[in-house]
C-alpha cells in the first residue's frame, strides 16, 4: 500500500478542517478534522524525525491554523487557508524528508 506523504496529511488537515467547518456550518466538526489530521501527522513526524521535531512541527501546525484567521481578513478565507497549508507542507517536508 502506498504511503501518503506526511506533508500532505498536515496540509490536508488545515484545508479539510476549514472545508468541513464551512460546508457543514459546524465549526467543531472542522476542529475534529483538523485535530485528527494533526494527530496522524504528529505521530509520523515523531516516528520520522524524533520528538523535538514533532513538537516544533506541531507548534507550527497550531500557529498556521491561528495565522489563517487574521490573514483571511486581508486576502480572503480560502487563499489564507491554502497559504498556511502550503507553508505547513513545506515545513513538514523540509524536516521529515530524510528518515532517521
Explain this structure to me?
By secondary structure, the chain is mostly helical. It has one domain (about 5-95). Helix content is about 85%, strand content about 0%. The protein is built from four helices and no strands. The protein has helices spanning about 5-25, 25-50, 50-75, 75-95. Helix 1 (about 5-25) runs antiparallel to helix 2 and helix 1 (about 5-25) packs antiparallel against helix 4 (about 75-95). Keywords: Membrane, Transmembrane, Transmembrane helix. It comes from Streptomyces changanensis. This is Integral membrane protein.
Shape assignment: globular
Low-confidence stretches: none
**β-sheet strand percentage:** under 5%
Mean pLDDT over the residues: 94
Straight-line N-to-C gap: 21 Å
Short key terms for the protein model shown above:
100 residues; 4 helices; 87% helix; Integral membrane protein; membrane; transmembrane helix; transmembrane
In short:
The protein is an all-alpha fold and 100 residues long. The chain contains four helices and no strands.
List the helices and strands and how they pair.
Layout: H1 6-24, H2 27-49, H3 51-75, H4 77-96
Helix pairs in contact: 1-2, 1-4, 2-3, 3-4
